[in-house]
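Q: What changes when biotin is included in the input?
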Amino acid sequence: MTYLDEKNTRTALKNYGVNFLFLEETDSTNEHLKRVLSTSEFSDPIALVAERQMKGKGTKGRQWADDPENCLKFSMLVEYKGMEKYLPRLSPLLALNLAEIFQNLDPSVRIKWPNDLIKDFGKLSGILIEAVRKDEKLFLIFGIGINLFNSSELNREVNRKISYLFEEKKQEVLRRSEVVEKLVISVLKTISSCVEKDDIVFCERWKKLDFFYDKIISLQSPTEQLTGIEKGITPSGELKLLTDGKIKEISNGELSIVL
Ligand code: BTN
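A: The predicted holo structure follows.
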């Protein structure tokens, strides 16, 4: 028995022109799609779900822990035809698109810069986007991990608070394929909305779901700590921090918010 209804998921994703791959086990769904990309025969967009991920990758070289019964591991390979100047804002934009969709299931879902979904102070979902060039084309791999149900295994393994999307396991199989469909919709929306005219709209939408907006936050890197008032993000995805009466713009990858 598998946790995801493979057939239903494949049929649903066909409606969006997305091919579907399902694996019982892999090292990392992002790495698997890189291997698919290195073959000559593939047809993107491709969405992949693996029931078990043995070497899940997180941001900043960290590991992403798994519990097959309770966590969903998803990656999607898409050719990027937009302008490269919009690449830095893709991951906050994806987090925002996902949070807007999941808000319908749970209104307490919020975003934490640059690309985490949080709920009740715990991490609900993480995003890792990787870019690969092939034959003069740029491909993106959107990796998303979501905690669907409470997992004592994960709570033991991970050294911070974790949240999950659903309280009960009712209709679990149906729910997983619906969640996969929502992930695909969010990735497609992210890819198609990287245009200049969306700049202001993007920042305003972000502000509405930003858990830390107007709150005092601390940002930490291995070498520095910054404290200030969070003021949302810039159109290119940098965090705005009010400190010493000035707005400092912080790029993704420089520092992370301390919860
Ligand atoms: C983070 O550290 O917040 C990002 C975590 C991203 C995890 C997902 S799970 C599916 C995909 N495959 C991976 O190896 N990582 C991403």
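Observations recorded in class: The CA atoms of residues 77 and 141 lie 5 Å apart.
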